[in-house]
Amino acid sequence: MRDTDTSLLIIRAARGYWQAFRSVQKSLERVLKGENPGMVARDDHGSWYREMFAPGNTAGIIRQADGDGYRKDPVFISRSRYVPPRGDAVLDFMTAFFELVEEEDDPAARIVLGHFVFVFIHPYLDGNGRMGRFMMNLMMADGGYPWVVVPVGERKRYMGALERASISGDLGAFARFLGELERCSD
Description:
186 residues
């Protein structure tokens, strides 16, 4: 691949992330006006995803079908022992996920569940981590917390906490990690 091709891919990826972020901002406005964050996420997450990959779709780099809905195929996460649910179970998992976050009253629990359960299900072929962090930040806004970003230097710890939670069901380290991120963003 030539350097110009790589540069164009990076530009398209950045553009898609910016478009998705703008779409999430519209969702944040709804949550900040008092709408249930789980319902907002259910309504809007598909548009976040489509916006994230729109530049690649337009350029013909990504097949349009890849951005049209939940995955049907199996996925594997690199450098992880965790294997997400089969593709034919994703819709049922996502239905249960949204019921869970819609009904959860505790903002801190909704933040952890909003991120962790989403990436645990891994409903898309690509972009699940980015979508999970958008989901987490939407839930954080409802709890009155600031927007947080996982610093590059903390990525290994972040992935380790997700891996531990996915394999053993122990969400403690992951919840503590998110709490530390929130405190650092003040």
